[in-house]
């Protein structure tokens, strides 16, 4: 499901009419956080979450943290609920054995960079990671989950979209009131290029560090100008992927935005392949979407790898350095 257009407009009548239901949603989130029996592990837990529903750049931040924690001498393990997967866990993700339909596309992607545990019960997932030798846990999308005590809480937001109309689901994109969520956070990562970073104008608590970061394509030597492309993406905001390709000089014969985590069924892929052949184009998608491709299709679809770069690496390293490696 794509987010409604009125989630960005506080004056829209639909948003105002739904605001009372949004207030109920916010109260339900507050009760869950207040009533949860939090468990303290013997190792640090770093939460990467969001206040918005939908795509904010959380997965690239999780990968970036795992890489930097490893550079600091840690053995980072990621714990995820495995959205879109059928396994309840705890299960240690094995990309050679598991499918996205079992563990979710994001855990499968992250497993290329760190050990990943999928668990609907985050406490059980954390214990499994600790017993397996993790020295630190990166909790993926756990900001509104009370199962584990969190030593560092990082909120991620798309710098261009910000926090929308400031209302809670279904009146707006927020899982909880903005002031409440930011008050619990230890740091805010805003994801976007320099232009949207300058335009980000959400008032923040004076003591909340803001870290600007941008997703940039890996320099693989690929010439994106040599042929037309059919680009498809089932991420939070597919247009960002299409624009990245255009900035690389790619000619996009067709763009196909899909719903976030939309299954890549044989029928859908066959249609995309047929349309690409008719346009003389090559299929290309995101790394997250590629994790959902059936094995038979992986040689037919190219991917655009991207990595997160922080404007101030020292600022991020200082946040992580408070947790010394064993």
What does this structure look like?
The protein is of the alpha/beta class. The chain folds into two domains: 5-215 and 309-321, Rossmann fold; 228-304. Helix content is 33%, strand content 21%. The protein is built from eleven helices and 13 strands. The protein has helices at 13-35, 58-71, 100-103, 105-110, 122-131, 178-184, 194-199, 238-247, 266-279, 287-290, 313-321; strands at 45-49, 76-80, 91-92, 115-118, 136-140, 152-158, 187-191, 210-217, 228-233, 251-257, 282-286, 302-304, 306-310. The strands form two sheets. A nine-stranded mixed beta sheet has the order 3-4-2-5-1-6-7-8-13, sandwiched between helices. A four-stranded parallel beta sheet has the order 10-9-11-12, with helices on both faces. The protein is globular and about 55 Å long. The model has no long low-confidence stretch (mean pLDDT 93).
Topology summary:
Blueprint: H1 13-35, E1 45-49, H2 58-71, E2 76-80, E3 91-92, H3 100-103, H4 105-110, E4 115-118, H5 122-131, E5 136-140, E6 152-158, H6 178-184, E7 187-191, H7 194-199, E8 210-217, E9 228-233, H8 238-247, E10 251-257, H9 266-279, E11 282-286, H10 287-290, E12 302-304, E13 306-310, H11 313-321
GO molecular function: ATP binding; lipid-A 4'-kinase activity
Binding site for ATP: 52-59
Pathway: Glycolipid biosynthesis; lipid IV(A) biosynthesis; lipid IV(A) from (3R)-3-hydroxytetradecanoyl-[acyl-carrier-protein] and UDP-N-acetyl-alpha-D-glucosamine: step 6/6
Structure in a nutshell:
This is Tetraacyldisaccharide 4'-kinase. This protein has 326 residues and is an alpha/beta fold.
């Amino acid at each position: 499901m794509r987010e409604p257009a009125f989630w960005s407009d506080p004056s829209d009548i639909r948003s105002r009419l739904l605001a009372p239901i949004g207030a109920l949603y916010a109260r339900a989130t507050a009760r869950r956080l207040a009533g949860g029996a939090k468990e303290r592990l013997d190792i640090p837990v770093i939460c990467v979450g969001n206040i918005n529903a939908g795509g904010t750049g959380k997965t690239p931040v999780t990968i970036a943290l795992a890489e930097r924690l490893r550079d600091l001498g840690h053995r980072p393990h990621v714990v995820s609920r495995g959205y879109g997967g059928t396994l309840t866990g705890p299960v240690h993700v094995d990309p050679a054995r598991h499918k996205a339909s079992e563990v979710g596309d994001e855990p499968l992607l992250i497993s290329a960079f760190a050990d990943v545990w999928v668990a609907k019960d985050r406490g059980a997932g954390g214990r499994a990671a600790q017993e397996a030798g993790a020295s630190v846990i990166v909790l993926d999308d756990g900001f509104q989950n009370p199962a584990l005590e969190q030593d560092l809480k990082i909120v991620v937001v798309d710098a261009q979209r910000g926090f929308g109309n400031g209302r809670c689901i279904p009146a707006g994109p927020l899982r909880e009131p903005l002031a409440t969520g930011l008050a619990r956070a230890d740091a805010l990562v805003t994801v976007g290029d320099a232009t949207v970073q300058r335009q980000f104008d959400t008032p923040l608590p004076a003591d909340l560090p803001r870290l600007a970061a941008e997703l940039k394509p890996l320099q693989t030597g690929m010439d994106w100008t040599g042929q037309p492309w059919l680009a498809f993406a089932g991420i939070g905001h597919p247009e960002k992927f299409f624009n990245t390709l255009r900035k690389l000089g790619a000619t996009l014969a067709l763009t196909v935005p899909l719903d976030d985590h939309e299954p890549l069924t044989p029928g859908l892929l066959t249609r995309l392949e047929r349309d690409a052949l008719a346009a003389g184009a090559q299929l290309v998608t995101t790394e997250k979407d590629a994790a959902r491709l059936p094995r038979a299709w992986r040689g037919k679809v190219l991917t655009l790898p991207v990595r997160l770069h922080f404007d101030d690496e020292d600022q991020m390293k200082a946040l992580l350095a408070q947790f010394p490696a064993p």
